[in-house]
Amino acid sequence: MLFNSLTFIIFLAVVLVLYYTLPQKLKWIMLLIASCIFYMGWRAELIILIVISTLSNWLLARLIYDKPEKKKVFLIISLIINFGLLFVFKYMVFINHSFMWLYDCFGWTYPIKDFDIVLPMGISFYTFQAASYTIDVFYGKYKPERNYFKLSLFIMFFPQLVAGPIERADRLLGQLFTKHKLELENISQGAKLMLMGYFKKIVIADRASVLVDTIYNSPQEYKGLPLVVATLFFTVQIYCDFSGYTDIARGVAKLMGIDLMINFDRPYFSKNIKEFCCGRKTTNSSEKSWELYQMQREKVNCLSKNFFAFSQNSSAACANGGGCGTMSADGRAVRERKTGTGRVLENVRSGGTALGCAGSGV
Predict the structure, then answer these.
(1) Which residues share a beta bridge with 240?
(2) Highest mean pLDDT range out of 53-62, 100-109, 346-355?
(3) pLDDT for 97-124, tens place per residue?
(4) CA nearest 65: which of 129, 136, 128?
(5) Which letter does DSSP use for residue 237 in this model?
(6) In what helix (H) or strand (E) does residue 334 lie, and over which residues does it extend?
(7) At residue 229, does pLDDT exceed 70?
(8) Dihedral pair phi/psi, residue 49, rounded to 5°
(9) What pLDDT does residue 44 have?
(10) What is the pLDDT confidence band of residue 306, given thresholds at 50, 70 and 90?
(11) Strand ranges (DSSP E) for 46-148?
């Protein structure tokens, strides 16, 4: 379910009506059900990955707390499960393609055939959020949540499930179960954030992607200035894509009286590489390393994929023909099309344009 769709607007309206009319003890249950419906609107079967991630972190966090003498072992197991799933579903195909390209450069025969794995929507975000919960319990910052379904809501809370921000348990868990009254100020602030996010996403990012996709899909047809301009537009596109979605997420949560962290603090105005990668040290971002790290990691992943789109040899890129499915930053289905210069992404659905790469996994 895309934020910039009529389906989501109707979905959100129903959720808000229920949120402010149901008894307090039922609100969180309704939010959990709504979050499941939101995620399953893309591919229902992949919700099993969130269930596995949540269940493993719930059990291992309790073991870390109840058996401190073995807590390092339980933490390692938790990290292996969390990042193992992320590695398999997000990076296995990319690493395999990279080795195919490397072997082809030396004229060697690569022993592993090309394969594709469906990229689950939001896997980076809910993996880091689940891992942060277990790490916080390990360091004694937070006691483990005894109710599995309440922890599930923390990890699956639909406004920030697809594109962040990645929240910490001590900040978000309490808000999800606190009574929030219908207040005009929250509605006003939430609506403003959503409008700003939609402007960034639809007016700027989607329009910039028209130029970016045109040039990146056929880089062999352009030289010099057009490639530079497309790359500059891509930096604007990817920032407004992710920043816009985060603003929408924060706005949706604010409509329910829930405050999500600020996720972007003018990254392109950083004074050096360290500040760019680790976050601008201001009062708004000093404690937001998870979110800022995630943003930069997604950007690097996107740019590296576009590099390989330019540099792959045709024999490696066109092996076996066909294409594979993946997701854009906003969860939109896109398809890899193999060309003589490498792999490029194009929309499967009509209307709108996809990112120049499948950066978020969202």
Answers:
(1) none
(2) 53-62
(3) 888 888 888 888 888 877 778 888 888 8
(4) 136
(5) H
(6) strand 333-339
(7) yes
(8) -65, -40
(9) 86
(10) very low
(11) none
The mean pLDDT value of the chain amounts to 78
Predicted pLDDT at 278: 62
CA angle, residues 38, 40, 46, in degrees to nearest 5: 135
Question: ∠220-225-230 over CA atoms, to 5°?
Answer: 70
| Assigned token pair, 26 | 């039922």
Contact 126, 156 (CB under 8 A): yes
% residues pLDDT > 70 (the chain): 76
Give pLDDT, residue 280. Answer: 53
| Complete edge-to-edge strand list for the sheet that includes strand 333-339 | 323-327, 333-339, 342-347
Question: Cβ–Cβ contacts within 10 Å for residue 68, how many?
Answer: 12
Q: Is 332 exposed, middle or buried, given 0-12, 13-18 or 19+ CB atoms closer than 10 A? A: buried
Q: Are 297 and 305 within 8 A, CB to CB?
A: no
Structure tokens at 48: 């099993």
- Which of these, 7, 186, 163, lies nearest to 15 by C-alpha position? 7
Amino acid identity of residue 249, one-letter, is A
Look at residue 16 in the predicted model and tell me its pLDDT. Answer: 95
Backbone angles phi, psi at 266, to 5 degrees: 50, 60
More confident residue, 296 or 153: 153
Both tokens of 28, joined, read 């969180």
- Answer for the pair 81, 126: CB distance below 8 angstroms, yes or no: no
Task: Give the residue among 256, 293, 291 at the shortest CA–CA distance from 278.
Answer: 293
**Per-residue confidence (pLDDT) for residue 334, from 0 to 100:** 42
Greater model confidence, 295 or 198: 198
Contacts 24+ apart (CB under 8 A), 167-174: 167/129, 167/260, 167/261, 168/132, 168/133, 168/136, 168/290, 169/132, 169/133, 169/136, 169/142, 169/145, 170/136, 170/141, 170/142, 171/261, 172/258, 172/260, 173/142, 173/145
Distances (CA, A) of 51 to 32, 44, 56, 57, 86: 12, 12, 8, 10, 14
Nearest one of 298, 300, 280 to 288, comparing CA atoms: 280
Confidence check: pLDDT of 335 > 70: no
**Rounded to an integer, what distance in angstroms lies between the CA atom of residue 245 and that of residue 329?**
9
